[in-house]
Write a structure and sequence with these properties.
The complex is a heterodimer.
Chain A: H1 2-8, H2 10-31, H3 38-115, E1 119-127, E2 135-138, E3 151-153, E4 158-165, E5 170-174, E6 181-186, E7 192-196, E8 203-209, E9 219-222, E10 234-242, E11 249-256, E12 265-269
Chain B: H1 2-19, H2 30-41, H3 44-62, H4 68-83, H5 92-116, H6 123-154
Helix pairs in contact in B: 1-3, 2-3, 2-4, 2-6, 3-4, 4-5, 5-6
Classes of the chains: A alpha+beta, B mainly alpha.
């Protein structure tokens, strides 16, 4: 009878049987919670093989995808950071320039104050490319009171003299030019000579008596005679000395105190040449 | 052959779901879709057996109360079989809605079983999570059902319920 009922209601009986099995499973599981049977472990192991494969594929794909997307972002970020770094470098450079300029101007100001001269500060705006005619162009001219013949110096020493002045710019003939000459004196021995420019970077000290006490390394300054350069402004140091020349003079070469190739700001002594000679 | 293929597909869907879908904010349960589909279109006894195996596999792999998913899946399959004469997964909307409700019934059964066996489960959180996951499962149901149908076509399957065979009404 039971068999006949089961045969007639196969679906319901199967359903109920499976529910009962499930309930039994739950009852057993509640008693030994967390412990898997050998069959369960085998089933779990088998599934874990597939699961590991899928998981690793998923992670590989995910890493590739995010790696690619990340790299695109990285490229853009890299470009942005490069631009930012470039801008910052420019700003740092500008700040460094300002610091250097500040230092130079401070030195010039210090020289101006200590010398007691009336001076005008000017920026060097050009250097003559000709080696035969050594001049620089400065950014101040007759409008600023600059006149031909005025002495141009820096805190390091003599630069030259104003050769021509237009309203806003002036041309300065460097002391190292062959057309320049300044009455000079050796600071230590007070022996006099004439400092003249030449073709080289050195200034020649001419008409120095043979018995003059001169030595390599001696500082040569302006004597104040001649009315252009005031007394005591540094010309340079004796670099080479030749006492064996014929005649009554010895010959010396002076290394200019001013590095003409690195000139950026200069002072023009605006006291009239008539007032010079202090 | 078909039952075995369906079981394999279901197992793969479950493994895939557990392996990869955890990365998503929602966790759809492909087993619900398969069980509902089996209840609707397959012979009930093999269908119930497949549902039980799927539930059992789900129990083992999720580490939940052993038998709870088996119980729930068998119940769902039977329910799906019982309503198949009135409600059929004919279109995408019906597939999604039916899946959603079956997911919620599954959650209800599991919740009651947990309560019955004095296991900790928080009603509100369980409900919210169930609703979210039911939505996610409903969304993927048309895709999975379409996959099953393709597999059936590949196997040149003609749906058979009981002794005879009839066309699939999906």
């Amino acid at each position: 009878m039971l068999f006949r009922f089961a045969k007639k209601n196969k679906v319901s009986v199967t359903f109920m049987s499976l529910l009962i099995v499930s309930i039994l499973l739950m009852s057993v599981d509640i008693k030994k919670r967390g412990k898997l049977s050998v069959f369960d472990e085998l089933l779990l192991d088998a599934s874990s093989v597939v699961q590991n494969g899928i998981t690793s594929s998923y992670h590989t794909g995910r890493n590739l995808w995010f790696g690619y997307v990340y790299l695109i972002g990285l490229k853009e970020e890299n470009e942005r950071l490069k631009n930012e770094a470039s801008e910052l470098r420019e700003r740092i450079n500008a700040l460094r320039e300002t610091v250097h300029e500040n230092q130079r101007l401070k030195s010039l100001l210090s020289f101006k104050e200590s010398s007691g001269y009336n001076t005008e500060t000017a920026r060097v705006i050009g250097i003559s490319p000709l080696t035969s005619f050594k001049t620089i162009m400065i950014g101040k001219g007759s409008v600023d009171g600059i006149k031909r013949g005025m002495a141009v110096v820096t805190n390091d020493g003599v630069v030259g003299r104003v050769f021509s002045a237009s309203p806003n710019t002036s041309k300065v003939l460097l002391i190292s030019d062959r057309n320049s000459d300044v009455d000079a004196v050796i600071q230590r021995s007070r022996d006099r000579g004439i400092a003249e420019g030449g073709d080289s970077e050195f200034i020649q000290l001419k008409y120095l008596p043979k018995n003059a006490d001169a030595a390599v390394g001696d500082l040569v300054v302006t004597s104040g005679i001649g009315g252009v350069f005031k007394k005591g402004i540094i010309l340079g140091t004796i670099e080479r000395l030749d006492k064996k020349t014929g005649g009554i003079f010895q010959y010396a070469e002076i290394k200019p105190a001013v590095n003409f190739s690195k000139l950026e700001e200069v002072l023009i002594i605006t006291d009239s040449p008539e007032e010079n000679g202090r | 052959m078909l039952h075995f293929s369906l079981l394999t597909l279901a197992a793969l869907a479950l493994i895939l779901g557990q392996s990869s879908l955890y990365a998503l904010p929602l966790s759809p349960n492909p087993a619900i879709i398969i069980v509902t589909y089996i209840g609707q279109f397959y012979s009930p006894i093999p269908g119930l057996a497949i549902s039980f195996i799927l539930g059992y596999f789900l129990d083992i792999s999720t580490g939940t109360l052993m038998g709870s998913n088996s119980f729930s899946m068998v119940s769902l399959c039977y329910l799906s079989y019982m309503i198949s004469k009135r409600v059929v997964m004919q279109n995408l909307f019906a597939q999604a809605v039916l899946t959603f409700f079956f997911f919620m019934i599954h959650s209800g059964i599991v919740y009651l079983l947990f309560k019955f066996f004095n296991l900790n489960v928080f009603g509100y959180e369980f409900l919210v999570t169930s609703l979210q996951n039911a939505g996610a499962t409903a969304l993927i149901s048309p895709v999975l059902i379409s996959g099953i149908k393709k597999m059936e076509r590949l196997l040149r399957f003609e749906n058979a319920r009981g002794a005879g065979s009839k066309d699939i009404q999906v």
